[in-house]
């Protein structure tokens, strides 16, 4: 059968052209997604000034986006399991590109709030559809590597945001950044429409051949699947608390507590994100050999060791070193397996729904609460102290979660 890719049950030495195309599409979609999402951290101070809101209130913009991701990811995941992945993937990219553009026109904080909610619907949809599609297509022994390559999306998006910030940004010119960020995902959506074929046909054919039927969302919480679903929510909450503790307020911390210039903020965040790209590729590949448990464990320990340094107030050299260490092990190592690890919690018939619901539910608890708490406590304890506590506690939690579930690196994704 000629399809858009080979099921992961077929182990091969190399990915074919269709599989590489899917990997490129989903990775770029995640990069452009992150590009917009992380831009907000660079321009937070100016948005707070323009709309006269506090850090805690601005943090709720991230929270409402996270809520939208949960809703969009779950609903579109159900649609993708029933009718195929292609159309939802294309629609989600164009959707969030459009609302990126509209964000730049926000006349009031309330308008910004609503637009970021609508943006989040597309953001959650893209990840819940794109990741299962990719993990089902790549060879089994390349899933960790594919996950690592995919997960460079957020640090790579952070690098793009840093470069855009340092090259075109001027005080009060935050709107232009959204206008520019909107163009790539829309172009990618059109490219996907042209080049990505037969995804729906492939899913239907798999159901015919294996007798698989779609299931109601409630079945994610039935029988033996219950613990897998709960574990996926918990581990994703840990992933997201770790990520937001590191990234959500880092540029603001550098501006307010270090008094860094635009250029200096960009240099430090580029260092962190570049090391995360390298870490994601290395640990993603390593996870195919040592497994998901040990990848999480080693990366979490490395993140804990580096966390006191990346917020070092009185020694810039140690801060730079800490940013590299935390980036390499945190958004790099820990996050390298998020895509495949979450997808491996669910069988084919409920994978998009399960992935979309649990990743975004974890993001709801981890990502919705964490930025607000950091914003609230920063006035009393400082950003650095609160961020460090978040990193240490979430890294320890992830180690516990890794060893409370089975090893899945050899799981057959075609069933």
From TrEMBL:
Signal peptide: none
Membrane topology: Multi-pass membrane protein
Protein name (record): MFS transporter
Predominant location: membrane
GO CC field: plasma membrane
Compartments, as annotated in UniProt: Cell membrane
Ranges that cross the membrane: 21-45, 57-80, 87-105, 111-133, 145-165, 177-196, 233-253, 259-282, 294-311, 317-337, 357-377, 383-405
Keyword Transcription regulation: no
Keyword Membrane: yes
Single Gene Ontology MF annotation: carboxylic acid transmembrane transporter activity
UniProt organism field: Heyndrickxia ginsengihumi
Domain (Major facilitator superfamily (MFS) profile): residue spans on this chain: 22-408
Alphabetic keyword roster: Membrane, Transmembrane, Transmembrane helix, Transport
InterPro entries with a match to the protein in the record: MFS, MFS_dom, MFS_trans_sf, Sugar_transporter_CS
Pfam families on file: MFS_1 (PF07690)
């Amino acid at each position: 059968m000629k399809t858009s890719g080979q099921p992961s049950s077929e182990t091969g030495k190399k990915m074919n052209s269709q599989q590489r195309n899917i990997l490129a599409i989903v990775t770029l979609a995640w990069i452009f997604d992150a590009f917009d999402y992380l831009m907000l951290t660079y321009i937070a101070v100016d948005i707070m000034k323009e709309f006269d809101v506090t850090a805690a209130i601005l943090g709720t913009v991230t929270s409402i986006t996270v809520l939208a991701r949960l809703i969009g990811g779950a609903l579109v995941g159900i649609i993708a399991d029933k009718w195929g992945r292609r159309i939802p993937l294309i629609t989600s990219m164009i959707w969030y590109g459009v609302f990126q553009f509209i964000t730049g026109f926000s006349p009031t904080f309330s308008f910004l709030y609503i637009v970021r909610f609508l943006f989040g619907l597309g953001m959650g949809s893209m990840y819940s559809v794109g990741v299962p599609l990719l993990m089902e297509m790549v060879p089994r022994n390349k899933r960790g590597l594919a996950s690592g390559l995919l997960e460079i999306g957020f640090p790579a998006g952070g690098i793009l945001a840093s470069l855009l910030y340092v090259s075109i940004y001027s005080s009060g010119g935050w709107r232009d950044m959204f206008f520019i960020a909107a163009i790539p995902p829309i172009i990618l959506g059109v490219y996907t429409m042209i080049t990505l074929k037969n995804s729906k046909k492939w899913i239907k054919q798999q159901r015919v051949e294996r007798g698989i039927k779609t299931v109601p969302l409630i079945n994610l919480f039935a029988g033996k699947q219950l613990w897998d679903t709960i574990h996926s929510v918990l581990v994703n909450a840990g992933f997201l608390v770790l990520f937001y503790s590191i990234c959500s307020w880092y540029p603001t911390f550098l501006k307010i507590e270090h008094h860094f210039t635009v250029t200096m903020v960009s240099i430090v965040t580029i260092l962190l994100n570049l090391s995360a790209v390298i870490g994601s590729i290395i640990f993603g590949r390593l996870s195919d050999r040592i497994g998901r448990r040990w990848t999480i464990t080693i990366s979490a320990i490395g993140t804990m060791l580096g966390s006191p340094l990346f917020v070092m107030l009185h020694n810039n050299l140690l801060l730079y070193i800490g940013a590299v260490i935390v980036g390499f092990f945190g958004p790099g190592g820990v996050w390298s397996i998020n895509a495949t690890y979450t997808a491996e919690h669910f069988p084919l018939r409920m994978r998009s729904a399960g992935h979309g619901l649990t990743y975004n539910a974890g993001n709801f608890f981890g990502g919705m609460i964490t930025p607000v708490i950091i914003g609230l406590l920063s006035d009393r304890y400082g950003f650095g102290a609160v961020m460090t506590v978040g990193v240490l506690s979430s890294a320890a939690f992830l180690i516990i979660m890794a060893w409370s579930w089975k090893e899945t690196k050899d799981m057959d994704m075609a069933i």
